[in-house]
Design a protein that fits this description.
Elements: H1 7-29, E1 34-40, H2 47-60, E2 72-77, H3 80-93, E3 102-104, E4 119-123, H4 145-156, E5 160-165, E6 173-174, E7 177-178, H5 180-186, E8 197-202, H6 206-214, E9 219-225, H7 228-233, E10 240-244, H8 254-279, E11 287-291, H9 298-311, E12 320-322, E13 330-332, E14 335-339, E15 353-356, E16 369-374, H10 381-390, E17 408-412, H11 418-430, E18 439-441, E19 444-449, H12 456-462, E20 466-468, H13 477-490, H14 497-518, H15 521-530, E21 531-536, E22 553-558, H16 561-574, H17 579-591, H18 598-609, H19 612-638, H20 642-645, H21 649-653, E23 659-661, E24 668-672, E25 677-678, E26 683-684, E27 690-691, H22 696-706, E28 711-716, E29 727-731, E30 734-738, E31 742-748, E32 751-759, H23 767-781, E33 785-794, E34 797-802, H24 806-814, H25 820-827, E35 829-830
Parallel strand pairs: 1-8, 1-9, 2-4, 2-5, 3-4, 5-8, 10-17, 10-18, 11-15, 11-16, 12-14, 12-15, 16-17, 32-33
Antiparallel strand pairs: 6-7, 13-14, 19-24, 19-26, 20-23, 21-22, 25-27, 28-31, 29-30, 31-32, 33-34, 34-35
Helix pairs in contact: 1-2, 2-3, 8-9, 13-19, 14-17, 14-19, 15-18, 16-18, 17-18, 23-24
Length: 832
């Protein structure tokens, strides 16, 4: 892959490959064992990237999976434009799926079977009865598409995978007339057998799964679900959708809010230019999307275009396009607005305004589209939600840490009232349908760094220890080290990093070989590898009885070169990233003998790689080197531009233990307004206040802290993102992060000191695990803090556990699930 996959993408890809391989093996064993795999991923999760990774692995293997030279994929949708967009995205994402392997089925297609290691894109209209492709022996055609599908299943069923993209569509049952998708999946008597393995992809898979259960072909179902919270944390989606609409009791404000939308688009442009200049990156040119009713009058269109052109100085007709279903230019109020296919908008930097009607076509992505003004009414909510879902991708495929207002989408809804807007907020919060997993804000307030506070507080905050929590799945540590070496070398931090990796890991292999040779283990392993144990037995043909047959015989046969090559290919998967090849090369060179057999060197390499203890030793050495380089070179990494810093984060997460990272305090961000605003926060509005809706213990804690004359500043620690202080804790089998609520700064006899105060509930199931994580954090980092306290209210009294106390930490280590309240009652003091 050209992209470094997010944790959830790698995890999902691995699960899907496992399921598809199991499905193929099941069909190989029993030609009546049908499977369906369903990838359920929220809008914006990168389903095409996951799919490209799966197909790469199916075709060419990986460090975990062997290649499948017979694998074939039929990619089915109901939209030709979606197929072309998917092809384009796969070409951008994949390092091995070139144009020759991604084939669109067109009118000239006429093949007996689908070829191996190729993806065939089919829109279902090609299988309509009226389409010549669905019929053979016509117009010079030899094979119908149905014949090609049938022949491929018959000859290669265990390696044939049918992908249904946007799988919730095409799942209807219309009386006796079944959809084309259902005929592909379930087969047709005398025409094509059922597809052995079906892989559905959808953000809303319920309809697909219900149809699979309802249809007559019984299948083993394997769901693979991408969690919403993982997509939220990925940085691939905007953080917030900000909704503006006329307040209660006011008349519609179509043109007023249209002008406001233009102003916001130009503000985005200014902010992106500042960020690009600071980071030495190409600027992002934001796009304004204007959604109109299905049949707008000339008067409505004149008003809209008048507002847009009137508010946007220098805007030309060529900067505005329409995506209307008529596919033609429109002429209104002296302007000629040309048509453009949605998939072409993102890359055409002349386009700054897009006019659309219903949701722009499925699969359309335009990360530059950052502002929407919709003239639709509440009953058209689905159209608006679908369109918002196309606009939430981040332009740079990462979260912006410094100017966090660039992580927002602005939507103006002049024909919605407050109650209707609240319905949108609720639906997005619940993720009811196609809504992307993005926070919705209705009363937005922009905050900046508080210039009335001591400047040193911002540096102190960013120097606080925060952690990257390991992902749920991690790659080979050899691959992780190779990636880090490539990054460090590319950023001129370690010039010869890859050469150092090769030398170090070859040395580990040499030491491991010496250890195995010392007791004869290696020579025995090499002999077993060179030879093939063969069992000879006899069948009853001319002999009169079994007693007349010779006994079975076991004997050894030398493996030929081809089989040694097979074992060497396995070694390269066990020792990836060229490590096996590098060791083999060193063996050949070190002999200094032109007659040295390179096949023998491959046998030696394979004998090492097939020994589990050897692999574990190399993995451990690679992991140790990663930790060393990250620790030593973190200051240099922290000074890199954002675009470079972000590529190191996956390397940190691919460990088995949490890694220290950077806390980046934003220069500015947008937050929700609240009834209460607070002084002395590190971020503030134009009045020097920070809005925050605190309740219960949190509010009581902050009120008491602000009453302390020694308090000079505080920070409401956000949940997630690089601007948060993240404390790792162990939850079930995976590490997770907790986010202590308050970071406080006080004057002390030792100067300004930071403190952590976390109002810590004891009623949740993970309360003890989080408290133990915070205690471990305190044990390692207590010198950096004046106080580290967990606070709880019991019987109306606030109590605090001092986590800088070794005795308190010892008690926390012993607490079990459900015992946190008793811990506070027995060990906490009054909070003041």
């Amino acid at each position: 892959m050209r992209y470094t996959l997010k944790d959830y993408q790698l995890s999902s890809s691995t699960e899907i490959v496992k399921a598809l391989r199991r499905a193929g093996a099941a069909w190989e064993a029993d030609n009546d064992d049908y499977w369906s795999v369903i990838l359920s991923a929220p809008t914006g999760a990168g389903k095409t990237v996951i799919a490209a990774s799966v197909i790469e692995t199916l075709f060419d293997g990986s460090s975990t999976f062997a290649e499948d030279p017979l694998a074939t994929v039929l990619w089915v949708t109901d939209d030709p434009a979606l197929n072309e967009q998917t092809k384009r995205n796969m070409l951008q994402a994949s390092s091995v799926l070139g144009p020759s392997r991604l084939i669109t089925i067109d009118s000239g297609f006429d093949e007996p079977v689908f070829g191996a290691r190729q993806v065939y894109f089919l829109n279902i209209q090609k299988l309509a009865r009226s389409n010549p492709l669905s019929r053979g022996n016509t117009n010079g055609r030899t094979y119908s598409l149905w014949s090609t599908i049938s022949n491929t299943i018959t000859s290669n069923g265990s390696h044939f995978y049918v992908v249904i993209d946007e799988a919730h569509r095409g799942m209807r049952n219309e009386g006796d007339r079944r959809t084309i998708v259902s005929r592909i999946i379930n087969g047709q008597t005398g025409i094509n057998p059922p597809a052995p393995t079906v892989w559905g992809i959808s953000a809303t898979p319920e309809r697909f799964m219900a149809a699979i259960e309802r249809w007559e072909v019984e299948r083993t179902n394997k769901p693979v679900t991408v969690p919403l919270e993982d997509v939220r944390a990925s940085g691939l989606l905007k953080d917030k959708i900000i909704l503006d609409n006329p307040s209660a009791g006011q008349a519609e404000g179509d043109t007023t809010l249209t002008r406001a939308a233009v102003k916001q688009t130009l503000q985005f442009e200014e902010d992106w230019n500042k960020y690009a200049l600071a980071q030495n990156e190409p600027p992002v040119l934001p796009v304004l999307v204007v959604q109109v009713p299905n049949t707008p009058s000339d008067g409505e269109m004149s008003e809209i275009l008048g507002a847009v052109f009137g508010a946007w100085e220098g805007l030309k007709d060529r900067n505005v396009v329409n995506t209307f279903g008529e596919h033609t230019a429109i002429s209104v109020a002296g302007h000629t607005i040309g048509y453009m296919a949605p998939q072409d908008i993102q890359d055409d930097l002349d386009v700054r305004v897009v006019l659309c009607k219903d949701a722009i076509s499925t699969g359309w992505d335009c990360p530059r589209a950052e502002v929407l003004v919709s003239m639709r009414r509440a009953q058209d909510y689905t159209y608006i939600a679908q369109l918002i879902g196309r606009m939430v991708r981040t332009p740079l495929a990462r979260r912006i840490a410094t100017d966090q207002s660039l992580n927002d989408v602005h939507c103006y809804l002049p024909r919605f009232d407050s109650q209707q807007v609240q319905e949108i907020v609720t639906r997005f919060a619940e993720g009811r349908s196609d809504e992307p997993p993005v926070e919705v804000v209705t009363n937005a307030v922009r905050v900046w760094r508080n210039e009335t506070l001591l400047p040193e507080l911002f540096d102190m905050t960013q120097a606080l220890p925060t952690y990257v929590v390991p992902g749920k799945i991690y790659r080979s540590q050899i691959s992780r080290l190779t990636t880090l070496a490539t990054l460090l070398s590319g950023d001129h931090i370690v010039e010869d990093a890859l050469a150092q990796v090769r030398m170090q890991l070859n040395g580990v292999l040499a030491i491991q070989r010496q250890g195995l040779e010392s007791d004869g283990t290696f020579e025995k392993a090499l002999q077993r590898l060179r030879s093939l144990r063969v069992e000879r037995s006899y069948a009853l043909l001319a002999a009169e009885s079994m007693d007349d047959l010779p006994p079975e015989v076991l004997y050894d046969m030398d493996r030929d070169d081809n089989n040694i090559e097979d074992l060497y290919r396995v070694a390269k998967r066990k020792l990836p990233e060229g490590v096996a090849s590098s060791y083999w090369n060193d063996l050949v060179i070190s002999q200094g003998d032109d007659d040295y057999d390179p096949i023998e060197a491959k046998a030696v390499t394979a004998a090492l790689a097939l020994h589990p203890e050897v692999i574990e030793a190399v993995e451990a050495a690679a992991e140790h080197q990663v930790r060393t380089w990250l620790r030593v070179h973190q200051p240099s990494i922290s000074k890199l531009p954002d675009a470079r810093k972000v590529v190191y984060e996956p390397v940190k997460r691919e460990t088995r233990e949490p890694e220290l990272s950077d806390l980046v305090l934003p220069e500015t961000k947008v937050v929700s307004d609240a009834d209460e605003r607070w002084a002395k926060h590190l971020l503030c509005d134009e009045k020097g206040e920070f809005p925050s809706a605190l309740k219960g213990w949190e509010r009581k804690v902050l009120v008491r802290e602000l009453a302390d004359n020694d308090l000079i500043g505080w920070y409401r620690n956000p949940t997630g993102g690089s601007s948060s202080l993240r404390v790792p804790y162990r939850s079930t089998q995976f590490d997770r992060a907790m986010y202590p609520d308050f970071i406080l700064f006080h004057r002390t006899d030792e100067g300004v000191k930071a403190s952590i105060v976390d109002p810590h509930g004891f009623h949740l199931s993970d309360a003890s695990a989080k408290l133990k994580g915070l205690a471990r954090y305190a044990e390692v980092h207590e010198a950096k803090f004046g106080r580290i306290e967990a606070v709880a209210e019991i019987d109306g009294v606030l109590l605090a556990l001092d986590l800088r106390s070794a005795a308190i930490r010892g008690a926390i280590r012993e607490v079990g699930e459900g015992g946190v309240r008793a811990l506070f009652e027995g060990h906490a003091g009054r909070y003041s």
